[in-house]
Amino acid sequence: MQILRTLVVDDELGMRLGIQKALSRFKMQLPEVEEEIGFVVEMAESAEEAIEKINAGRPDILLLDYKLPSMSGLDLLEQINVQESEMVTIMVTAYASLETAITAIKKGAFDFLAKPFEPDELRKSVKKAAQNLILARQVRRLEQEKHQVRFQFISVLGHELKSPLNAIEGYLNIIHERVAGSDLKAYDQMVDRSIVRIQGMKKMIADLLDLTRIESGQKKREIGACDLRALAQTAIETALPAANERGIVIELLADEPVVMSADASEIEIVLNNLISNAVKYNRDSGKVRITLKKDAELVKVSVSDTGIGMNAEESAVLFKEFVRIKNDKTRHISGSGLGLSIVKKIAALYNGDVTVTSQPDVGTTFNVHLHSAENRPSESA
Amino acid sequence: MNTARKILLVDDDIDFLAQMQTRLKALQYEVITAEGQKEAETILADTKPDLAILDLMMEQVDGGFALAYHLKQKYPDVPVILCTAVASETGIEFDAATAEERAWIKADVFLPKPVRFEQLVREMERLLKDKT
Predict the structure, then answer these.
(1) Using a CB-CB distance cutoff of 8 angstroms, which residues of chain B are in contact with residue A188?
(2) CATH number, domain B6-131
(3) CATH assignment of the domain containing A116
(4) Which residues of A touch B (CB under 8 A)?
(5) Which residues of B touch A181 (CB under 8 A)?
(6) Residue A72: DSSP 8-state
(7) Cα A173 to Cα A130, A141, A230, A234, B27, distances in angstroms
(8) Is residue A183 part of a domain?
(9) Model ipTM?
(10) Residue A16 three-state SS
(11) Which chain A positions have a beta carbon within 8 Å of B35's beta carbon?
(12) A194: nearest CA partner in chain B
């Protein structure tokens, strides 16, 4: 059970005891929280005592009399500066007027209860206040989690961008200091490696921009009829130079055009990522097979390779950002670590998903399922 | 200056490997490189270096530790410098300060990455001098 600390501030003993009696056995349930919620009631008979108690440890709910001997409840509210997610205040008064109610709410009171009141009225007001408090706390917790994820992403990104820069700087310093003497071939190799690292970095930045564009939803999606077979053919042409270099054959199995309603640039990203991966992680003289099928409204894209494969542990983390499978076999293969997390996010835009099956040293198959994009107002806005 | 002291350099970052190799060669060291624990173990099977510089984080998280351990078992007198980015990446501090720790970790010196070349050379020269 979750217990909410409630502080009753009133100079009348009868009122304090009455409230305590009304709340001490009161239990409530909220759909947002699994546990039952109960109340423990503490009391203060003056504003000074109340301030002391509040400063010693914030109660969750404050039941505050409007008219206290040395200062008004409003003055007390002004003296304690609390966040909504920390404490909610219910102002209690016999001198109910619209004006005092408005002032109290302006100064941070959540609700207003006019004396005399029935225990049920009190409990109703307390329940509302508790609900408000718990929701505010949940919102704050979610925001903190989001903040945390963002922070982690930026810190990993910083590291991923720093490492090519370190490498390039290292080469430039060696070239600048002529450390390799008159061995021009050695300098050529350093320039070549620097270019490779710069290209890797550019690819990572391009992927990163794709990712943020998809996530922010700011890019206007251009939904239209797309032929996946034609898009796949273009993606194959892009991958062909790298494939030819290593004797890898790419085949496309689609008897007829596979048309769906989609943003062509998003489908291109999916196909390019999967096909270039299937080439990169293949063995020499391997095979890449792309199958496109339309099953009623569901479009199925499958990309298989005969490459190095992965074990179950590696497959499980594959779609996370900046995850690159590191082992002896992948060490010389470059990548941003973002491609598959982008594929996954795009699949989600089409109400679909991407799954992987793989066997070490046999090969890997990615299956993407996509539904036609509807021109919903949120997407065309 | 040393006359062709044999240095084993192990790191999975091929750019770091190439750069260190170039710089050490310029100082007249003979450099043998390996990109991972396995490759290094193969080299060690028939080659005894005068000194080894190992990266802590190879494909297995503790690849450098295991390699240092095996190296010291086979050639107890070969000094080992362990380079590590661990401190900056995870906040874990390693130090081979006490004799007890050195006995367990099997490295003579720990250097944080990015490695300052001048510092690396200073440590190498000190360890090679101690040895002779």
Answers:
(1) none
(2) 3.40.50.2300
(3) 3.40.50.2300
(4) 159, 163, 166-167, 170-171, 174, 179-181, 186, 189-190, 193, 197, 326-328, 331-332
(5) 26
(6) B
(7) 63, 47, 47, 41, 16
(8) no
(9) 0.83
(10) helix
(11) 331
(12) B15
